[in-house]
Amino acid sequence: MKQTKIIMGMPITIEIVDRNATPDDLTEIFDYFFRVDKKFSPFKKNSEVSRINNHMVSITEVSPEMRQILDMCDKTKKETQGYFDPYHNGKFDPSGIVKGWSIKNASEKLKEKGYKNFYIEAGGDIQVFGKNQKGEKWRVGIRNPFNKKEVIKVIFLTDGGVATSGEYERGEHIYNPHSKTIQKEIVSITVVSSNILNADRFATAAFVMGNKGITFLEKQKNLEGYMINSKGVATFTSGFERFNK
To answer: What does pTM read for this prediction?
Structure first.
């Protein structure tokens, strides 16, 4: 059972391979993503993020979910030496964490329902569990940043998260908080982890680091990366090749 809806301004796809999958369970997960969008979107006037930015609610008065995100933003900022920063021009935008966080939560909801083989994708960030319809590992393609219709690398996963940071969808939008500029050295970086939250948050930071991003990922436990620079040259971490089959 597979379905796609546009939420958070991007396509979200859920595919459950298990035969006992029900439309109601898919609807419940999509409803969760709608709630996340309503609370965390920096573009919705009445979202909690907008209320924080408009000084309508203080940091000490936020909801428990927002507190989770704020704490994760602080943790990620420290772990990445400040290359991940949810503040830009004085405005709070946790999008670099919320997407992966919400996919991870949605995956856990499906697991709680007893599902063992499924796939969730939101705007190119993916969490997979178990096997696909053919009983094989899930195949995840990395798109060519110079030709979005072309897949230049396919990786194979059973349980794991994949996030790609780059200029695929929104053009130049990821700023280096240290230099206050947009880095031009690399065009995309893909991170693979055991869960999509870690893949997502570190992909954003590693991209901002430019050529240093792949070295940063090499030093991290349980993270692998695949970087493409502005000249089209790919570099990957030492453990990345295990996803080749």
So the answer is: 0.92
β-sheet bridge partners, residue 192? 162, 224
- Quote the number of domains for the chain: 1
Bigger pLDDT: 180 vs 117: 117
Q: Is 161 helix (H, G, I), strand (E, B) or coil?
A: strand
Distance of CA 151 to the CA centre of its chain: 19
The CATH number linked to 19 is 3.10.520.10
Q: Which residues pair with 6 in a beta bridge?
A: 11
Residue 172, pLDDT score: 44
Domain around 215: 2-243
Cβ 222 vs Cβ 194: under 8 Å: yes
Q: Tokens 């991003």 map to which residue?
A: 213
Cα–Cα distance measured from residue 201 to residue 207, given in angstroms and rounded to the nearest whole number: 10
Strand partners, 157: 138
Q: Check the CA dihedral 88-90-95-98 and report its sign.
A: positive
